[in-house]
Amino acid sequence: MGQLSGVRATLERWGIIPKNSERSAVGELGIHVRKIVADMNDPVKAVLGYMERHPVDLIVLATRAT
């Protein structure tokens, strides 16, 4: 899976970009996307700590069953 494939699929589902868009479609929106994987026992602390160091306008959280 490419770095932005999950992001692109989400933006397609939300109707922000057309289905089957090229990778460049994400960048053409003028947004900066960064995927962060946090491996901490306290997810709230992990998110708040990241946001203190890196101000954000929007954050989308996802979890994955292990």
What does this structure look like?
With 66 residues, the chain is mainly α. It has 3 helices and no strands. It has one domain. The protein is 38% helix and 0% strand. The model has no long low-confidence stretch (mean pLDDT 83).
Number of strands: 0
Give the C-alpha Rg. Answer: 14 Å
- Average pLDDT: 83
Head-to-tail CA distance between termini: 18 Å
* Uncertain runs: none
Counting DSSP H or I runs of 4 or more residues, the number of helices is 3
Structural class designation? mainly alpha
Q: What's the overall geometry? A: elongated
Percent strand: under 5%
Q: What is the succession of H and E elements?
A: HHH
Describe this protein with a few key phrases:
38% helix, 66 residues, mainly alpha, 0% strand, 3 helices
